[in-house]
Structures are given as structure tokens and as C-alpha cells.
Amino acid sequence: MFKDARTSLEIRVATDSRWKIRLMSVLVAVLFVTVIAAYAFGKYRAEVEWQQAIEALDVLESDFTSVALENDKLKESLAFEKAKSRRDLQIKRQAYEEVAQTLISTSREIASLRENIRFYESIIEGNEHKQGLQIKTVSLQSDGTVGNYRYRVIIVNSDYGKKKSKGKLLIEVEGLMEGDLKTIKVPTGSAGKDAKLLFKYLQRVDGLVTIPEGFLPQRLHLTARLSGKKTEKKEKWYNWNILLNKGLPEQS
């Protein structure tokens, strides 16, 4: 009886062992399949994500290339606009300078014409009042070298007749030399002589005054003489510095 019970127990234990082995085998197989499936799924997901990453990278590279090209275009456009602006500014500046120069030149011409008009009006008025011989205009300016000055004198005779007036022009410079008052005679004609006057209405005399070193000019003395049947003499004194600075020249 005990033998049958032990045999029955052994059979049951053996049966339980086989079931456990089978169960373990099934569990191992399931685990293996699960691992394989998880690996396969993970690999698949990795490949999918890798492919998506590659596609995203391609998109980003394409976008970057487009942005870079657009940036280059903007740089070129900006450089072109800057160059155009500089060129336009240069053209406008050049045009402005030309207009300004034209205005200056025109203003000088207008001033010169007005001066000429006043001058000829004074001649006409002088003719009406019979003022006779006049030292009308005197100008003085440096010629750019030390001690040398260019002068211009305009002589007018409003009491003219049918014949031309004849005479001479004498120019002297009065000044100080080593503290003493000195007078320098200025050659107005050829060979150091006085300039000859021969005119009916007016005559212009141009020349050069050379001031010696150490001489301080103070006044310019002009004497115009007409010879012939009707002699006439006209003298005028001019302040040297005022005349040189184009101020009011005439003094008594």
C-alpha cells in the first residue's frame, strides 16, 4: 500500500516537473520572442526615426541653403544700394558745386557789370556837369611776390572836344624808410618814364609798383596832367592800406 502511494506520488511529482519544464520552456520562448520582437521593433523604430532625422536634416540643409542664398542676395542688393547712394550723393554734390560755382561766377559778372554801369553813368553825369579831368578809379593788389603790387588807374575827361586829350600820369608812393619820410617814384611808362595820356573819353593805365625792402608805404599819390591849348592838372592821395584792402581809397 505504501508502495503504491509512493509510486503515485512519484508519478505526480514527475508530472508536475514536466509541466514546470514545459511552462519554463514556454516562458523562455515567450521571453525570447518578446526580446526578439522588442529588438526588431526597436530597430524598426530606430530606422524610422533615423530616416525621419535624415529627412529633417535634408529639409534644414535646404532651408539653410535658401536662407544663405537670400542673405547673399540681400548683401549684394545692400552693397548695390550703398554704391548707388554714394554715386547719387556724389553726383548731387558735384551738381551743387557746379551750381554754386556758377552762382559765384554770375554774381561776379553782375557786380562787374554794375560797376561798369556806375562808371559809365558817372562819365555821362560828369559830361553834363563839365567836371573835366578826373582820376576816376584806382585799384591796388599784390601780385603774389614780396614787395610787388599791381595797380590800375582809369583817367576820364568829361570836358572833351573833337580832339583827343594829351598828357602824362605821375605815380608816387610816400612812406617811411628807417624812420624817415621818403617818396618813391613809380615808373608808369616805358624806360622808366611817366605814362603818356592820349584819349578822348577815358584811358586805363596798368603797371607794377615795386617796394624796396625796409620801406613802409603809407600813401599813394597820383598826378594827371593834360597839355596843349588847355592845360589841366588833377591830384589825388590814397591811403595805401585801405586801397590795398579794397576799402574807401580816396583821401584829401
Helix-strand layout with pairing:
Elements: H1 2-129, E1 133-142, E2 148-157, E3 165-177, E4 180-186, E5 195-199, E6 202-210, E7 215-227, E8 232-239, H2 240-244, E9 250-251
Describe the structure.
The strands form 2 sheets. Strands 3, 4, 5, 7, 8 and 9 form a 6-stranded antiparallel beta sheet that branches. A 3-stranded antiparallel beta sheet has the order 1-2-6. The chain has 2 helices and 9 strands; from the N terminus they run H-E-E-E-E-E-E-E-E-H-E. It is an alpha+beta fold. Mean pLDDT is about 75; it is low at about 245-250. It has 2 domains: about 1-130; about 130-250, Immunoglobulin-like. It starts with a helix and ends with a strand.
Shape: rod-shaped
Number of strands: 9
Helix content: 40-55%
Major β-sheet annotation: 6 strands, antiparallel
Tally of separate domains = 2
> For the residues shown, what is the average pLDDT?
77
Q: For the CA atoms, what is the radius of gyration?
A: 58 Å
Structural class: alpha+beta
Between the first and last Cα atoms, what is the distance in angstroms?
177 Å
